[in-house]
Design a protein that fits this description.
With 153 residues, this protein is mainly alpha-helical. The chain has six helices and no strands. 5% of the residues are buried.
């Protein structure tokens, strides 16, 4: 039996039970439940408490499930972002190298600031790249720094 079949069967049982209760008199219900007229209020409160607890437990499970889904989504996003930034930085490093090779006059200015182009950190590469873009030495390619685009070339 699948989960859906089980769920359908459960709803059929509950509908039949509700129908039989709806058609019963108060005296029949008291007799079937073994409750005195004074105990009906207590039974109603117990039933309310039981149903409220079931609803609360269901909401907590749904919240926990949503939280797990959220955490997985954030982790996947951060992983994708890290991969994209790392690829973009490598592309910036390559572009900077090409610019420095084609414009040897820029190398002393850049290496004076960072000592050695080969050992520049990713942040330094990004900063130098942005500065050269701002100066107009490099055409702004920030939209095309997605490393997956390079695979398509």
């Amino acid at each position: 039996m699948t989960t859906r079949d089980s769920s359908d069967s459960m709803w059929q049982v509950m509908a039949s039970l509700a129908e039989s209760i709806d058609g019963a008199s108060e005296a029949e219900l008291q007799d079937a439940l073994g409750v005195t007229p004074d105990g009906m209020g207590e039974l109603a409160e117990e039933t309310r408490s039981l149903l409220s607890g079931a609803v609360s437990a269901f909401r907590k499970r749904q919240l926990a499930s949503a939280r797990r889904d959220y955490e997985r989504s954030v982790t996947a996003y951060r992983t994708t972002l890290k991969r994209g930034v790392a690829g973009a930085t490598e592309r910036m490093r390559r572009i900077l190298g090409e610019v420095l090779n084609s414009n040897p006059d820029l190398r002393p200015a850049l290496t004076a600031q960072f000592r050695d182009f080969e050992t520049m950190s990713d942040k330094d590469i990004e900063g130098a790249f942005r500065q050269l873009v701002a100066l107009g030495v490099i055409e702004d390619e920030s939209d095309s720094l997605d490393p997956s685009e390079e695979d398509q070339r």
